[in-house]
Specification:
With about 130 residues, this protein is mainly alpha-helical. It contains two helices and no strands.
């Protein structure tokens, strides 16, 4: 190798060494900052993880309670439905009875029925009031 070529190679190696050294020196603060940031993120994740666990536990409890409540509601809905059907049937029966009385009973018959009921009530009062004395 010739001497000028060796000098050029030596200078090139020195320039590369200086560039690598400068890069390392420039990266040190970035690496420190990245480590601090990662430490803060880790702390944040740990505190959040605890909160999330508590929240999930409470959520599970709420879902369980909601399931029990909805099961009870469905039981009672069946009872209410059956009661409503019975009441509807009773209403239809009363309506039909009213229609029958209205269409078939003669007005005089209704008056006689009312007079008979009042008379019976009067007689029952008389009978029971004498027994008390």
């Amino acid at each position: 190798m010739s001497q000028p070529l060796a000098i050029v190679i030596a200078i090139a190696i020195c320039v590369i060494a200086v560039a690598v050294g400068a890069a390392v020196v420039a990266l040190v603060p970035l690496i420190r900052q990245a480590r601090e940031t990662l430490s803060r993120v880790d702390t944040l994740i740990q505190s959040t993880e605890g909160d999330v666990r508590l929240t999930v536990s409470e959520l599970r409890s709420a879902v369980h309670n909601l399931n029990q409540l909805s099961a009870e509601i469905f039981k009672n809905v069946d009872k209410v439905t059956n009661t409503a059907e019975v009441l509807r049937g009773l209403g239809e029966t009363i309506s039909n009875t009213s229609d029958i009385i209205r269409t078939t009973a003669h007005p005089r018959l209704l008056v006689a029925l009312l007079v008979g009921l009042k008379t019976g009530r009067y007689l029952l009062r008389k009978i029971f009031s004498k027994k008390r004395r």
